[in-house]
Amino acid sequence: MNEISLKLDERSQLGKKVTTLRKDGVVPSIVYGGKSDPIATQSPFMETTKVVHAAGKHTPVHLTIDGKKKLAIIKSIDVDPVKHALRHVAFHTIKQNETIATEVPLILVGNGESEAERAGLVILQALEKAEIKARPADLPEALEVSIVHLASTDDKITLADIVLPDGVEFADTEQDTGLVVANVYEPSALQAANEAAGGDAELTADVPAENGGDTPQDTQAEEVKSGGKAQSEAK
Fold first, then answer.
1. Where are the alpha helices (DSSP H) in 30-70?
2. What residue ranges do the domains of the chain occupy?
3. What is the mean pLDDT of residues 101-109?
4. What is the C-alpha to C-alpha distance for residues 72 and 185, in angstroms, rounded to an integer?
5. Where are the beta strands (DSSP E) in 33-168?
6. Residue 67 carries which DSSP code?
7. What is the dihedral of CA 82, 85, 87, 92, to 10 degrees?
8. Helix, strand, coil % over all residues of the chain, rounded to 5
9. CATH number of the 5-94+216-232 domain
10. What CATH number does domain 100-185 carry, 3.40.630.10, 2.170.120.20, 1.10.10.10, 3.40.50.150?
11. How far is the first Cα of the chain from the last one, in angstroms, to the nearest whole number?
């Protein structure tokens, strides 16, 4: 996995003043972690957007803050709902030798190669992500799930069927490994379900946008430091 890096500068403009930064092509951010106070930071829009797309919320990012190096993961992302432009990023520092828990995407592989698909059946993904834990160096960008062995509507794939890489395990040892990742359906059954639902049922599962749905920074939503104390996010 290629190293993802981002240079941050400490930021003095807070609150509503960050609007000026955004107009100048700068993304405000904040870095939490350890026993230190949160650090208000900023970085160029293009570089930050590329890092966010590459890392998501599961790949470690090598930060350099005024010459000091830190390893972090992205905890929250705020995107303008109209312009779809990045407005704010919250990082949380981690250590190379500590095990961290995070969500990673589940990617179905072998599309079109299964006996089920050759027979005209449809395979739908039911679970998009799984929470795992590992050291930063062992964190996979995604978990690949092969569907080539699926043959009939009686077949399915569950979390228990996923072969985890070395050094990786599910974050919750009590997690229901019987959760279904993918099912096989008759096209006629899906069509009937679609008609009964008034068109709401889809033949393909929607993948939630990585950048969507975060709390706007204007609400001053609280972030929680690793020390357990809630801190109001600086802007």
1. 45-55
2. 5-94+216-232, 100-185
3. 91
4. 41
5. 39-44, 61-65, 68-79, 86-94, 100-109, 122-125, 129-134, 143-146, 156-158
6. T
7. 130
8. 20, 35, 45
9. 2.40.240.10
10. 2.170.120.20
11. 32
Nearest to 168 by CA among 137, 136, 132, 144: 132
> What is the distance between the alpha carbons of residues 55 and 96, in angstroms, rounded to a whole number?
16
- What pLDDT sits at residue 1? 55
Token readout for 93 is: 């520092």
> What is the DSSP code (8-state) at residue 87?
E
Q: Residue 116: what pLDDT?
A: 94
Residue 159 corresponds to which tokens in the numbers above? 């979390």
What is the reported pTM? Answer: 0.64
Closest CA to 87 of 212, 195, 173: 212
Query: Per-residue pLDDT averaged across 171-178, rounded?
Result: 70
The closest alpha carbon to 155, from 101, 116, 194, belongs to: 116
68 vs 34: CA distance, rounded Å: 15
Residue 220 has pLDDT above 70, yes or no: no
Residue 72 to residue 68: CA distance in whole angstroms? 13
Q: What is the pLDDT of residue 175?
A: 59
CA atoms within 13 A on the CB side of 121: 22
93 pLDDT above the threshold of 70: yes
